[in-house]
Each structure stands twice: as C-alpha cells, then as structure tokens.
Amino acid sequence: MNPTAPASATAPTKNPASTQGRIGVLLVNLGTPDSPNTSDVRRYLNEFLTDARVIDMPAAMRYPLFKGLVVPLRAPKSAKIYRQLWDERGSPLLYHGLDLKKLVQEKLGKDYLVAFGMRYQNPSIESALEELREAAVERIIVLPLFPQYAAASTGSVQEKVMDIVSRWWVVPSISFISTFADDPGFIATFAALGKAEMDKHDYDHVVFSYHGIPERHVLKGSHKGYCKLGSCCNHYNKNNRYCYRAQCFATSRLLAEALGLRDDQYTVCFQSRLQSRLRDPWLQPYADEVLKEMPAKGYKNVLAFSPAFVADCLETTIEVGEEFKEMFEEAGGGHWQLVPSCNTHPIWVDAVVDMVKRN
Ligand SMILES: C=CC1=C(C)c2cc3[nH]c(cc4nc(cc5[nH]c(cc1n2)c(C)c5CCC(=O)O)C(CCC(=O)O)=C4C)c(C)c3C=C
Ligand SMILES: [Fe+2]
Ligand SMILES: [Fe+2]
C-alpha cells in the first residue's frame, strides 16, 4: 500500500444517502377489451384464450381451435354483452381498478408507488412494471386481484410478471400475494356489502357463485394428490392452500359466519363455464342449474354473491346480476339480488393496504 496515497483512492467514499427507495406495488386484474367493438373483443379473446394457463392444450391444437374457430364465433356474441356492460366510464373492471390504485396510493403514502396493469390488453403489465422500473423502486410487491388462487388467473399473472422481469438486466426483489381467500379485510368487505342488502330485503337463501374452472386445473395443482375434489376441499389447510375449490369453500364459510348464516342457508356454485365440444367437466354444481332449482325448493328470495371478483365486471353485473336473475324469475323465483363487488369500498381499500404492508 502506498502510504502517500489519499485515503479516498483506496477506501470507498462514505455515502450519506440511503439506498432505500420506494416500494413498488403492482395491482393486476384479468383484463377487458379496449372497447365493446367486435374487433377489440376479438383481440382480447385471442390473447386470453391462447394463454396456455387458460386453455391448457398443446399450442399446435390451441391456436387453430381457439384463434381459428372459437374466438371468431364467440367475439360478436361477447361484443354484444360487452356493449350492455359498458357505461359512460367504460369497462367497470378497468375503471374500478384505476380508482382502487389511486385510493391505495393515497393511503400508502410517499414510501410506496402503486401501479395498475391488466393480464390481457390494457394497461399492460409491461407498462405498469416499466413505471415502477423508471421510479427505481427498491422492490416490487405484486397483488393479482383474484381472491382465490387459480393457475388460469393468479398463476398467469405471476408467469407474465416473471417473464418480463427476467429479461431486465437488474432484477429487483419481487414478491407475490398469491391468495387472499381468507383475508379478514376481504371477508369483512363482502360481509358489509351483503349486510347492506339484507337490511333492505328479506332473503330465504344465499348463493356464493364463483368463476368456474375445469376440474382438471384443480387436480393438476393438487399437492401430492391430496385433492380428490371431494370432502378434502371442506378443510382449508397447508396441504390445499392453493386448491381453488378449497379456497372457494373457505371464503364461503367465512362469509357465512360473518353474515350469521347456517350451513343450510347458503349454496356454493360455479359459473361461466366455457362450453366446449371437449365436454371436460368444470367445477360443480353449475350455477345456472342450481338457481333454476331454487324456486321449487321454496327459495323465492335469493341474495347472490360473486366473491371470486373484487371488481364488478361482465361476470358479475351481466351474468349474475342480469342473466341469472332472468333465469331465476323464469323458473318461478321472486326476488334475485346481486351483491355489488368490493370495487372501492373503504374496507376493501384498507384491506389492500394491510395486505401490502404485511408483505
Ligand atoms: C376469478 C378469476 C378468473 C378465473 C379463474 C377465470 C378463468 C377462466 N375464464 C375463462 C374464460 C372467460 N372468462 C371471461 C371473462 C372474465 N373472467 C374473469 C376472471 C377469471 N377467469 C373476469 C374478471 C372476466 C371479465 C372481464 C371483463 O371484461 O369484465 C371471458 C370473456 C367474456 C366472454 O366472452 O364470456 C371468457 C371467454 C376460462 C376458459 C377460464 C379458465 C380456464
Ligand atoms: Fe374468466
Ligand atoms: Fe381440493
């Protein structure tokens, strides 16, 4: 060592500034078309239904079948329903997401930067992640806005995020909130929304209708073959934490408890199955079949929750709120009411903030 050399040449300069930056929060929902025009709906469905986590068949079959056949046939029909959904602010899934982002940012304050992206279409996950990268966030917490983990929803978001970030030269620390099926704040939000409806009307039965997925998807994710799609899903534990069916049952039990419902006062069912010629079974019972049988069982006034969604969208407002209502009334039912989703309910905003801070 040269004793005459200045200390600064050999020792690193002291850096008084901390390396600590803001924490990035990425909220992600599924996605929606840019407009309800058939061409935009077609582009959305093409991206959605060629995702290998949604349609889990070899690409050589998936592309010709879905891009070539299913989507061209489905797009005009879906566009018609999307036109029914669209309001002056556009697609509810999008504007509720952007509103939530703003409110969560306000509550989290300047130590956090909150971004919002969609798995399919816009704003893209790429653009949201780029916003966080530009701001040199210290780490990223990803919250896919699906209460119950499914490979087709949460898993797809995770894969997309990891794919993008893995191509960055500097890969930041990153963590995922993979399920919040039993989160107390999430349950408290739906309980409050449900109670508000129960105060307005007397109901003889409650329905918890979840987005369906193929049974195969559940079994593929079963830990060491634990899930048999039977009574195993009635208990939510470390062996089936990511079993979609067990999570839906756990959410329902907790909601029923919060609403003071006995076991015989509610029914769990699964909606929105994609009818395919392959006729693969989806999670059952199917919601449309369940609700048509209700009037004959004496359930004339039914309150319907859709707790697989934290924002109103096509699947809640149109499918449960309008199509199911019509089917129920045609089957002899009296009053059918959809409980609105969490959207920007203050308890939900606090729940998201809590989940982020706990992570
Ligand atoms: C709750 C999370 C969701 C899971 C799990 C999920 C699985 C899944 N979905 C399809 C097919 C379609 N879903 C569609 C709409 C849609 N799906 C979700 C969420 C989940 N899907 C949302 C939030 C929405 C609504 C988006 C909106 O813009 O409002 C559609 C498009 C509508 C239509 O044409 O009917 C399709 C198709 C499959 C095949 C699947 C699992 C394998
Ligand atoms: Fe879906
Ligand atoms: Fe299970």
Automatic annotation (TrEMBL):
Keywords: Cytoplasm, Heme biosynthesis, Iron, Lyase, Metal-binding, Porphyrin biosynthesis. One of its GO terms (molecular function) is metal ion binding. It catalyses: Fe-coproporphyrin III + 2 H(+) = coproporphyrin III + Fe(2+); heme b + 2 H(+) = protoporphyrin IX + Fe(2+). It is found in: Cytoplasm. One of its GO terms (cellular component) is cytoplasm. Pfam families: Ferrochelatase (PF00762). Pathway: Porphyrin-containing compound metabolism; protoheme biosynthesis; protoheme from protoporphyrin-IX: step 1/1. GO terms for biological process: heme biosynthetic process. Its EC number is 4.98.1.1. The keyword Zinc does not apply. Fe(2+) binds at residues 211, 315. Its main location: cytoplasm. NCBIfam families: hemH (TIGR00109). Catalyzes the ferrous insertion into protoporphyrin IX. Belongs to the ferrochelatase family. HAMAP family: Ferrochelatase (MF_00323). PANTHER family: FERROCHELATASE (PTHR11108), FERROCHELATASE, MITOCHONDRIAL (PTHR11108:SF1). This is Ferrochelatase. It comes from Hymenobacter oligotrophus. The gene is hemH.
